[in-house]
Amino acid sequence: MRTGRPAAKTDAPAGLASVEAITEGLASAGYISTRQISTALYLAHHLRKPVLIEGPAGVGKTELAVSAAQYLAFPLLRLQCYEGLDDAKALYEWKYGKQLLYTQILKDKIGQIIASEDSLKAAFGKLGGFQDVFFSREFLEPRPLLQAMEQPAGSVLLIDEVDKSEEAFEALLLEVLADYQVTIPEIGTISAQVPPLVILTSNNTRELGDALKRRCLHLHIGFPDARLERDIIRARVPGLPDRLQAQLVAFVQALREENIRKPPSVAEAVDWARTLLLLHAEALDETLVRETLNVLIKRESDVQALQDRVLPLTKGAIETGGRPV
Amino acid sequence: MERALNGFIRALRLAGVEASTAEAIDAARTLALVGYDDREGLRASLAVVLAKSETEKAIYDTVFDQYFAPAAPPAPAPDGGRSDGPQTGDPEIDALLAMAAGSGGEGGGGQPAADATRAQINRAATEAGADDIRFQSQTSYYVARTMERLGIAALEARLIDLLNRNTPEAETQAQQLADARDRLRRMVRETIDRRYELYGRPATEQFMTDVAVNKSLAQLASSDMPRMKVAVARMAKRLAVKHSRRQRIRLNGQLDVRRTLRANAGRDSVPFDLVFRYKRRDKPRIVAVCDVSGSVSAHARFLLLFLHTLHHTVTDLATFVFSNALHDVADVLERLSFEEAMAQILRAYGGGGTDYGAAFAKLEEDYWSSIDKRTTVLILGDGRSNYTPPRLELVRDMAERAKRIVWLATEAPGRWGTGDSYMPRYLPYCAQVSHCVTVADLERAVDEVLEAY
């Protein structure tokens, strides 16, 4: 929200009222946001649109949804996508067992109910009043998407790794994402009481359909720059000596420039920081790096390729890390 | 919708960002929410709404900078101390002079005056139809038309009138008018240049790419390379979208009894959930063998470019190149950027005399195991083998081992069998032979290859 403008929506939760408020809120949940990220959340709320987040693994896509739910004190509903995910697991399912029981009871009771009617027509008329019960809310098992629609005070709906699901599943999402409603043929349309904040993540293992992208805001989170990464490490691993922190970030940043298959992500940098903290390290040195490199680099071929590069990289990091950022 | 936003979206589309009408509406809503005051805030907001992939974000940033150019620092006026400005008594000419003075950013108006001037020129340029500019050579034409819109005719007439008077004070006045006119013209030219960058260049580029796709590979100059990369990348994306997902085909309504019973075991085997039978389509497996010898050197770059992009589309792809010996280049193509990969491959293996027989022999010796019943062998080349033995028996073996052999020939059928061409003799073993002259041909051929899975 720009200064001097009236608030667009008075019912906006205080945590979503402005880009700055979102940044602060996320920081209180331990998530260091950028302007781009906060803007995306801000627009998601005010335009009532889902956000699709793309970017390499381990840069905090899922974490963003978790942190947002935490600081807004919204329930987080999470749908992990995988190949073969279908509407019965994502939207809703009928409680078959309960329905079976119901028919059993109905069988027993049916004689009593229609005993008083003397004609077949009258008996059918009487039964007509009961038919709807079979497919009713009572027998409905809501899954994450429907659950999110039913939250009375708002929620964060996380649809994780949507690229792992099949294309048919994307089509299923469209109604939920565009109109925040779920249509159940037997019952009707269930609209969200309060539109949830929907966050989809994708690792880009396949190109998502245009129809889905068009309905979403798009946020790309890449690797952070050195300053941001230091802030993240500071927030996530408090207690790490300042000098080591600077060296560590410089090392990781330099490592991403190397020609390796899987460059270390923020998550791995945080893991490494934790490792170094546990080892009570004060500063980087070559042996320390060699011994703990497997925390940062997960592929054996990459570790091999880096054998000769560890020394110069460490030296560079110590030099860069010594300078104030 | 606001005009500025409209123009921006048009520029984005021309530059290759596919913003739909729905997204344009979202952008308008965003604008209403965020406003123009904070440039970086606007950039971040519209980026989320309009650019929906990493490549599109990069394009978006460039176009945003061009379109919402920050206020330029005021250019120093050629001669200072004219803050009051000359008065001619004609309101129309006076307005123009004021504008020209405003461009200096000094004197009476300062920054607001400069902004007003820029807005006025922008409006005039739009009225003159400058958004339709396509070629750089049209710049002068649109500058002239914009000047006309600004009402330069009156100033010109006055100028001629003054020059004809032949008095010293008329001369000074004329000089001032001429200065003002030149200053205005310079500003208008800058405006038109920016319009060309926004609307003209991308449209021209688009057109040239379309032409390049249908141009014969042999005729493509190396200056076409960047365009070809765009075209081939677009093609690879199309192919990837179409073929990369694992295909499951339902066999029309055949019930999978065993799995149905299992799925419903919890419900006393009352079949609530029906499970149907389907068959899985294999993911494409391709072994590509590409001729990079002297005789196809004109094609080799494009064949390689094509293989390079194919590597990002098809996961199970082995690539070999040969001139007189066969080499595995899958790793190079996958790891390096295209320029590096091509330079390395052509330097190491390109340009020699062709020997198809030796290449097939090497393939049999070392890589035969990578060819099985699910593999399509893709051969790219002209089939000219310098009169070396063609080793037909190996090709026959390969045809039996592999799913099929597809030959993408660089020569027209009329020339097959002339001189050292073995094409007619290899022909019987190939399931498909396509004559590929253009990139469009290549796409069609590969689409068919992938389709067959």
Rg over alpha carbons of chain B: 33 Å
Overall residue-averaged pLDDT value of chain B: 78
Shape of chain B: elongated
Strand content of chain B: 5-15%
Strand content of chain A: 5-15%
Order of helices and strands of chain A: HHEHEHEHHEHEHEEEHEHHHHHH
Number of helices of chain A: 15
Fill in the keyword field for this structure.
heterodimer, A: 325 residues, alpha/beta, 15 helices, elongated, disordered N terminus, B: 453 residues
Summarize the structure in words.
Chain A is α/β, with parallel strands linked by helices and 325 residues long. Chain A has helices at 19-28, 35-46, 61-72, 87-90, 96-115, 120-128, 144-150, 167-179, 210-215, 226-236, 242-257, 266-278, 286-296, 300-306, 310-322, and strands at residues 51-54, 76-80, 92-94, 140-142, 156-160, 181-184, 188-191, 197-202, 217-220. In chain A, the strands form three sheets. Chain A has a five-stranded parallel beta sheet, with helices on both faces. A two-stranded antiparallel ribbon of chain A has the order 3-4. In chain A, helix 1 crosses helix 2 (35-46). With 453 residues, chain B is of the alpha/beta class. Chain B has 18 helices and eight strands. In chain B, 36% of the residues are buried. Mean pLDDT of chain B is 78; it is low at 72-85 and 104-109. Chain A binds chain B through residues 2, 5, 8, 19, 35-36, 39-40, 43, 46-47, 49, 51-52, 54, 83, 88, 94, 96-97, 100, 166-167, 206-207, 210, 213-220, 259, and chain B through 18, 20, 22-23, 26, 29-30, 33-35, 37-38, 40-41, 44-45, 47-49, 51-54, 57, 237, 240-241, 244-246, 266-268, 270, 272-273, 335.
